[in-house]
């Protein structure tokens, strides 16, 4: 009889749920949405697929994101944060050094070698073209990045490097043909006025 009671207590203890963490769950959902967008684009995003990817109940996705548009925007905002984080890492690597064309080209060549990242950023560009709200998010992120680089590169050259990189990203995502690192270095040298 006593064994049965202890068994019931053990079962009851096993059913104790972990404390709720709404922010963590929302972050899981947002990151799962970002992953799907990066891999397949936003048109394949559904609440069900995000819930499966995040490992959460379907009701959680609709609790935090009422519409699919809200979920897409949250995923894209997550991708924008990832881009911003890469920029900050690059700036931290530069430190007190000057941003010459060789260093910039090295970062660009390394970035282009990451097929997942290139595709993710290209998906962001496509969404920014179709959705004014996402376009605004992209523009704000780009302006912030540009300001971070101003101590190293004059604004006009920086804008040209950004346009060149956007072209490389779109071309790489569409054709999946790697660029010759020497050609990338040569083009960046020219843009930076170091040719």
> Helix count, per DSSP?
10
The strand count comes to: 0
> Helices and strands: which structural class?
mainly alpha
State the helicity in percent bands: over 70%
As residue ranges, the low-confidence spans are: 12-16
Q: Which shape, going by the Cα principal axes? A: elongated
Distance between the ends: 88 Å
Amount of beta strand: under 5%
Pattern of helices and strands: HHHHHHHHHH
Mean pLDDT across every amino acid position: 83
Query: Rounded to an integer, what's the Rg over CA atoms?
Result: 22 Å
Could you describe the largest sheet, including whether it forms a barrel?
Answer: none
Keywords:
195 residues, single chain
What layout of secondary structure does this protein have?
Layout: H1 2-14, H2 22-40, H3 47-54, H4 58-64, H5 68-94, H6 101-112, H7 115-130, H8 132-149, H9 155-175, H10 181-191
Helix pairs in contact: 2-3, 2-5, 2-7, 3-4, 5-7, 5-8, 6-10, 7-8, 7-9
Explain this structure to me?
- This protein is mainly alpha-helical and 195 residues long.
- Helix content is 78%, strand content 0%.
- It contains 10 helices and no strands.
- α5 (68-94) runs parallel beside α8.
How would you concisely characterize the structure shown here?
The protein is an all-alpha fold and 195 residues long. It has helices at residues 2-14, 22-40, 47-54, 58-64, 68-94, 101-112, 115-130, 132-149, 155-175, 181-191.
